[in-house]
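User: Structure tokens for both sequences below?

Assistant:
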Amino acid sequence: MAEPGLIAAYLAELRYSLTRLPDADEIAAEAEDHLFSTADALVAAGRPRPQAETEALARFGSASLVARVFVEESKRGGAVSTRLTRRAGAAAMLAPLFVAVGQAGNLTIDRGTGHGAGVALIVAGFAAFAFALWGVRRRHGGLAGWGRAAFWLFVASPFIAFPFGWGAGGALVVVQLLVVTLLGIGMIRARVLPVPAVALFTLAPAATVAVAALLTVMGLDAARYAPIGVVAFAVGFAWVGWAMWREPALDLRSPNGGPLAA
């Protein structure tokens, strides 16, 4: 191995820049092997050692840039599109439609088969929403702590709201608002789906509640503006589902096989 020089100083800076990552030592070791291999090959080709190390570093990139790339990649949580996540995307597109049609039937039909069908569609929409959230979490490798918190809070939301009695519906809405906010933070940090879509279904509910509270304090009718937030949320969630559904699944078999074909 070469004597300490430019590469050694570079690796020291890289290790310092990667201190917050649990696998910083492995990343630095891999960079060390690559840099010294490149420099040794350049020396064998006739370059002086200082020039070889300088050229190897120029090809590899600055320590701050390399560290930033690895930090950003660590936020992605190993996002992978599969057949399951594509189906979850389809569920995300259908969930708002099921709830909207079901609620329309629930409000306009007092009894009978039509009313029951409306309620069934609402339940189906809730189930599709749950499956879509689970699929998003799987696609993003869990979204770290944000994804875990959002998913389990969603699962627990009916039990959290139940003790509120007649106010259970309002409590459920508040919990779901927190669910999508936590999920959105994780998704925006991961940067692997359209940020405008994520922001729509994540920020629209919170923005709607904030605006409604402000309008109420001002003595205005907040209810007339509530549908704007609901529509924005539905559009954003369906948009995320569309993006997931359009992605090619990496676990599909192909005639030539592949690493995930088995």
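Moving on to the next sequence.
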Amino acid sequence: MTDKAISPLRRRLIDDMAIRQLSPKTQLHYIRHVKRFADFLGRSADKATAEDVRRYQLWLASIGTTVPTVNVSATALRFFFRVTLSPEEVGRLLASATNIKHKAMLSLAYATGLRASEVVSLKLTDIDRDRMVIRVEQGKGKKDRYVILSPKLLKILRDWWRAARKKGWMSPGQPWLFPGYRGQHTSARQLHRIVRLAAGRAGITKRVGVHTLRHSFATHLLEQKTDIRVIQVLLGHKKLDTTALYTRVAISALGQVTSPLDFLLKMPG
């Protein structure tokens, strides 16, 4: 495997580990184990299947690899497959949405980095077109915050709203952006199911969930050199032992951030 082929993957893996604040030693081990796995395959590691991983683990055992080393390798590969997801794969995932509602929900999850529970509980009044932000009301930690409303996402949400209104789903007094049954909003469980179905149609073999889109949002912003403190605010993260890293960001500052959704080249029209 050439350095040129591994470089983009390695870059994304490093960014993922940086966001998770893994130690330098752990990062080095993960990079080495992923590279060794790719060398075993003879092709890019992101093309591997579950059977490839199984064959690799059997090979490690057959050459007398110690149990601790096998365990570290398994942890590294688990991180790689469950956390790292490329922009190209996200594009395929979004393109595989079967209808405008699914497309809107998946696009919103990736474009904003919201949690599943936050996506489904958004209200129509939370969409602030004037300031190009979305208000997240009573999110985790019971503190409202604002996230990016990208131009591309706004267009998708408008298309969804028009289609839903035409079908009679946006009835007067109905507050939800994504209505469900009996006056309730769509459930987080249904959103997780939508992600899995789209991933299957896109041919993505990695384990994918709403958390994957959320993490991809953060990773791809980091790749764009967005300040990590801004990303923390957008994600709604706050750790008591790292309050110095968690800074209040003005809404006007959020307007300077470009959502990763707008960088996708192949987006259904």
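User: Anything stand out in the second?

Assistant: Residues 1-6, 240-249, 265-269 have pLDDT under 50 and may be disordered.
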